[in-house]
Amino acid sequence: MPTIRFSSQPRRRPPGSVRKDLPWVPRRSHLGRRGLAIGIDIGGTKVAAGVVDAEGRVLADARRSTPGADPRAVEQTIVELVRELSAGHRISSVGIGAAGWMDLDGGTVLFSPHLAWRHEPLRESLEKLLRRPVLLTNDADAAAWAEWRFGAGQGESRLVCITLGTGIGGAMVMDGRVERGRYGVAGEFGHQIIVPGGHRCECGNRGCWEQYASGNALGREARQLLRTNSPEGRGLLEKSGGVESDITGATVTALALAGDATSQELLADQGEWLGLGLANLAAALDPGLFVIGGGLCAAGDLLAEPARATFAKNLTGRGFRPMARIELAALGPRAGMIGAADLSRVSGRAYS
Description:
Blueprint (H helix, E strand, L loop, with lengths): L35 E7 L3 E7 L5 E8 L5 H16 L4 E8 L2 E2 L6 E3 L6 E3 L1 H9 L3 E5 H12 L7 E7 L3 E7 L2 E2 L36 H13 L3 H9 L9 H9 L3 H25 L3 E5 L7 H14 L10 E4 L6 H13 L5
Parallel strand pairs: 1-4, 4-8, 9-12, 12-13
Antiparallel strand pairs: 1-2, 2-3, 5-6, 6-7, 9-10, 10-11
Helix pairs in contact: 1-2, 3-9, 4-5, 4-6, 4-7, 6-7, 7-8
């Protein structure tokens, strides 16, 4: 039975012992344990929560707007959601997935780009308020776990999950555990530099992968096409409502799915950048499967097929090695919620 660890270098302890710094986290997990857990996915605009059973099914859900940048207000929102969902269900634990970096023990949010969390001891505070075990994890880690347990990654021993949204998120499930790296910040795949001296990135570097293969990148490329005053650009502007600033990655994706040739070409370009980055990751990590999730995946094979072709063309050792599969995520926007709930269940002691 796999061990769920959140450190790449765990200390050795006697069989059956419990970490003293995390008294509710046992050394050995129990995958598939019965009982219900609440998963909470905290984003920049909304907080989504759901009651999740041991098979990954969402039995009830609720959501709130993300309450600005006040950490105490976010905590109160979490408490309200848990109390609302607990009214009709017996809940064993709560899992929270949020964008940002967590410490290796999963108790403190070191930094969150969307919220004012800076070295915030969130787990301790929430456990006192909720009187239940709370697991805190990165949202991409939670989504990857959900896909490995219940979605497109079932049965794969070495999984890399890529999330294409505003930027690019990433996570790894290796041999039945979430791999977070030595310091807990692994998976920032979107910030591998793929074009030295290229587009400026919000992280402070230039040429990051997410500047070429993300929802933001797709929207930017479409708007740049409009400025060429080409027939393709004028046609795209007309089909999207005539307002340049309204053209986003989601707009282009919707037009591509409706059959617009220019939008499909823009998506194919994104797919090629995606495939190139995946080839780099394959050279470093050698996974058996890449699962591609996030909003941009609504494009389906319009994105995935160019990515697969470019991946095969650029893979190191191509023709002489097994090649990782590239599949679209199966669980959609609920993956983070499902994964956070399940991680809290398999890593925590049932509440009584």
